[in-house]
């Protein structure tokens, strides 16, 4: 079955429009269905306990103090601390039981006999399970009011006074009143997690988190859509294989090709400038993996720093608490990958067009300087904002916005957005000869569309403020985070890999255009609407459960295609002979495809099944999925691009790749050990505890301090060590290679690649 480029382009445009309509209507409908923030919370005698302003201020406290990177809310955030929603609901049950025990029997709940405990427990369950969420005023029973007040005082102990055993330093929240507002916020999320949505028989969160004592158990739709998703898995895998075998898209040539050797490629000033992005990324990478090792250690020693704190009399936990280290670890991971992608996008145009725009090197250097300023400013702002050095409303403008993956202040976010747009302009300058001659669905246009989609989706993160309802905030945050990962990033990967294959003369431009459009069609067709699998348990309307189930399952199809492509590329590599000069960059591309299938495909599908996701939401299974997908897929691609840039910028006679090969295998071995030996086993143990006890129990300190879990945390050490070692080897090699760069030429050398690309009729 032959498919033309024009047909694929029309299908891609149609899918884009459908996605836009579905997600646009979903955004409008969801805005009407979010759990209401009450005007007032009152007791049985009409006594006011909290107001809507208190709840909103509690969200501000949550964000300002970076607590989303210590624990989580509604299952989203870091896994070191407890989930505030689950913990608040758990404490609400506990304190209500104690209230009724003392009221009826004159003693604490723990001292009651079995029959009395059962009677009190049943009363609490029926009271919480019968609550209905309505806008306006929340009317508490006397027991609920007592529980709310007790949770407030507990939060003062935890977040203001500090609790080192939980890794919470003193003064995390600056004063007692703010800690109480944080409790008001957490208790509101607990309320709408057990209160039924009006006109429905389940809560706003589909009865999540699992807490049988409050009546929170999986709804019937959770099982139904899990079964449908399993059926779609089988069908989707079959469709993916059939499409790959039946659609005629030319494969990379394996014989009689003129692969340009690095010595035949002239280095232009703009490419020399683009190569400077590599050492900057390497530095960010080193800091990121060091912080990753520290975060893993914090799970073992929560109140210290390898024993040095007590020895030296330094409070390391206050200087670099888990939340700050996690924030920097996440942001630096995104930044070093993005830095390498930006550099690759500016390095490739001269190879394909044989054209160097005037003063392009100055602009490329200028963008790098601007990138460094934004990175330093953004990271500094996070620390200053979280530590209270930025007053008033500027804390989230210049400091830390406090949302996972979107921590940097709004000003720096605009800086990053401007950087994306500048990059697009510079890439367009470099590709100008190709852009002028090809159709709108051409290869050069595709890379600009991919980069532009990253910038476009980033704007969704500007649609809320710290006072916005947390459910609305999470809706737009996932537009950025998940649509990047499952949409724009995948699109960018496909476009960059295709450009790279074309620059190696392994794939013709027109064949690459077909491949990009074909795979982008399925990536965008499944990943965009698939973002809604994050909405099942965060207070969004029920419509997202079927949509999220279906489209997150269908995301497997493009990943199957990419895996097949990686296998074919491996066969191409194996038959290329020893003279093939780009073996190592090719190995990174293959590894990226394999880890993408494992991390995003296999693990991603498993944890997104509604029934599994209900119990595992916010556990170490998600950690395993995130590390395998983010570093394994996007990180390896970025490192492959870096290796390709190094191969072409280093003087051919000085090229040595031994250290880079060591780094490659250290990374792969380290990631496999970390995921398979530590992260996944801990995640499965958490899943069992969540299923047999409650979600709060699976996220509790008691779980993490268990003997087997602690042993598995220690078992992570070999994998982490290999990852850190690989990164240090890579950074050292990058620095060494900066001293053996070739000379530049103002005019790119003509190669068979540039001649073919520019002579092909569109």
From TrEMBL:
Entry keyword set: Membrane, Plasmid, Transmembrane, Transmembrane helix
The UniProt record lists the keyword Plastid: no
InterPro entries documented for this protein: Cyt_c_oxase-like_su1_dom, Cyt_c_oxase-like_su1_sf, Cyt_C_Oxase_1, NorB_cytochrome_c-like
Keyword set includes NAD: no
Stored PROSITE patterns: COX1
UniProt-listed SUPFAM superfamilies: Cytochrome c oxidase subunit I-like
Domain Cytochrome oxidase subunit I profile: 475-676
Pfam families in the cross-refs: COX1, NorB_cytochrome_c-like
Transmembrane segments: 7-29, 223-244, 277-300, 334-355, 367-390, 410-431, 443-464, 484-504, 516-537, 543-564, 584-607, 627-650, 662-687, 707-732
PANTHER family: CYTOCHROME B SUBUNIT OF NITRIC OXIDE REDUCTASE, CYTOCHROME C OXIDASE SUBUNIT 1
Protein name from the UniProt record: Cbb3-type cytochrome c oxidase subunit I
């Amino acid at each position: 079955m032959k498919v033309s480029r024009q047909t694929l382009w029309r299908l891609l445009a149609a899918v884009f429009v459908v996605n836009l309509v579905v997600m646009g209507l979903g955004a409008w409908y969801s805005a009407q269905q979010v759990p209401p923030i009450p005007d007032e919370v009152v007791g049985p005698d009409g006594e006011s306990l909290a107001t809507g302003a208190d709840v909103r201020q509690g969200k501000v406290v949550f964000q300002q103090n970076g607590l989303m990177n210590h624990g989580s809310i509604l299952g989203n955030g870091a896994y070191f601390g407890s989930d505030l929603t689950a913990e608040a609901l758990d404490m609400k049950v506990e304190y209500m039981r104690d209230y009724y025990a003392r009221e009826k029997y004159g003693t604490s709940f723990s001292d009651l006999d079995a029959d009395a405990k059962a009677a009190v427990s049943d009363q609490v369950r029926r009271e919480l399970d019968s609550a209905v969420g309505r806008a306006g005023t929340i009317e508490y029973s006397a027991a609920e009011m007592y529980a709310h007040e007790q949770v407030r005082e507990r939060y003062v102990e935890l977040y203001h006074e500090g609790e080192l055993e939980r890794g919470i330093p003193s003064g995390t929240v600056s004063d007692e009143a703010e800690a109480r507002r944080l409790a008001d916020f957490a208790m509101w999320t607990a309320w709408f997690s057990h209160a039924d949505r009006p006109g429905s028989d389940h809560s706003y969160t589909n009865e999540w988190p699992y807490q049988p004592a409050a009546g929170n158990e999986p709804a019937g739709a959770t099982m139904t859509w899990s079964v449908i998703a399993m059926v779609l898995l089988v069908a989707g895998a079959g469709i993916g294989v059939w499409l790959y075998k039946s659609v005629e898209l030319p494969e990379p040539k394996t014989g009689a090709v003129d692969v340009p050797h690095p010595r035949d490629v002239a280095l232009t000033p703009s490419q020399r400038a683009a190569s400077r992005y590599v050492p900057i990324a390497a530095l960010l990478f080193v800091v990121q993996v060091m912080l990753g090792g520290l975060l893993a250690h914090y799970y073992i020693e929560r109140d210290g720093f390898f024993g040095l704190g007590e020895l030296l009399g330094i409070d390391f936990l206050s200087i670099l608490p888990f939340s700050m280290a996690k924030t920097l670890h996440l942001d630096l991971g995104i930044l070093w990958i993005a830095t390498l992608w930006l550099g690759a996008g500016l390095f490739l145009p001269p190879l394909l067009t044989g054209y160097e725009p005037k003063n392009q090197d100055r602009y490329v250097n200028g963008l790098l300087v601007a990138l460094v300023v934004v990175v330093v400013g953004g990271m500094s702002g996070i620390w200053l904002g979280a530590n209270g050095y930025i007053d008033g409303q500027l804390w989230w403008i210049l400091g830390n916005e406090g949302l996972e993956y979107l921590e940097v202040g709004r000003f720096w976010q605009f800086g990053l957005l401007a950087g994306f747009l500048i990059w697009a302009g510079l890439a367009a300058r470099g590709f100008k000869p190709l852009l002028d001659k090809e159709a709108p669905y051409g290869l050069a246009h595709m890379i600009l569309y991919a980069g532009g989609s990253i910038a476009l989706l980033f704007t969704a993160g500007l649609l809320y403020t710290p006072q916005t309802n947390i459910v609305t905030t999470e809706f737009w945050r996932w537009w950025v985070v998940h649509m990047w990962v499952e949409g724009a990033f995948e699109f960018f990967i496909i476009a960059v890999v295709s450009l790279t294959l074309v620059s190696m003369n392994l794939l013709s431009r027109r064949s690459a255009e077909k491949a990009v459009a074909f795979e982008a069609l399925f990536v965008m067709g499944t990943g965009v609407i698939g973002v809604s699998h994050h909405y099942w348990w965060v207070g969004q309307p029920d419509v997202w459960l079927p949509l999220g189930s279906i489209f997150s399952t269908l995301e497997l199809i493009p990943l199957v295609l990419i895996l097949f492509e990686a296998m074919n590329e491996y066969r191409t590599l194996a038959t290329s002979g020893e003279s093939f000069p780009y073996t190592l960059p090719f190995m990174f591309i293959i590894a990226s495809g394999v880890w993408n299938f494992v991390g995003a495909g296999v693990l991603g599908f498993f944890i997104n099944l509604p029934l599994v996701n209900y119990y595992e939401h916010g556990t170490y299974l998600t950690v395993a999925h995130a590390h395998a997908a983010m570093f394994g897929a996007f990180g390896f691609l970025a490192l492959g691009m870096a290796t390709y840039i190094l191969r072409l910028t280093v003087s051919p006679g000085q090229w040595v790749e031994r250290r880079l090969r060591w780094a490659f295998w250290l990374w792969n071995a380290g990631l496999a050990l970390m995921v398979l030996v530590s992260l996944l086993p801990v995640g499965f143990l958490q899943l069992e505890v969540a299923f047999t006890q409650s979600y709060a129990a699976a996220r509790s300190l008691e779980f993490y301090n268990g003997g087997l879990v602690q042993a598995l945390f220690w078992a992570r050490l070999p994998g982490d060590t290999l990852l850190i070692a690989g990164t240090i080897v890579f950074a050292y090699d990058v620095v060494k290679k900066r001293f053996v760069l070739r000379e530049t030429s103002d005019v790119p050398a003509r190669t068979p690649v540039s001649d073919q690309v520019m002579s092909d009729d569109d």
